[in-house]
Amino acid sequence: MGCDVSKSVEVNDVNTAEDEAADFSDNQIDTIRSTWPILSRDMVGFGEKVFLRIFLEEPRIKTVFKNFSYMDENNLKQSKIFLDHVTKFMQVVDSVVDSLEKPKTEIQQTLLMLGARHATFDGFDIEYFAVYIKVLMSVWETAIGEEFIPEVRESWNIVFTYIVRYLCQGYELYVLESEHEKSCNGNSSVT
Q: What mean pLDDT is predicted for residues 119-146?
């Protein structure tokens, strides 16, 4: 007997996921949009700072990146592979900022797929996503400076929490589906 696909992993539909993630208030959107230009003017530079600090905060994260895990800070800053990753990371943040006032389904799907992709990285632990929030807040605070008032901090924290929520959901869905497939493949020889 094969595996019954109809008994696959239960997945919350996007509407349920949207209900869990409160919409961003107009004030939060204005706050994010007014501070994002400070950061977006040098996305690669700020992205570098984020990842270099992530690697300091949690060195195990760096080991996940096989193509540049052995590089020191100076070599990382010169590495096309590292800079490409940094750029993609910041483009995700840019996409989320761009979608604040739009229907969230498309960006949620992008984040879910990105989270699932991280589940395929050997050694990547879902707990690492929390390090990203902590480091992003720190780098943003330094970059924005005295304008990083409590309202700005709260608004960005909501954005980062939103991003990580969907990354984690994608990661978990991939892991559950992989486990389900393994159990199905293991049971496929049973008659």
A: 96
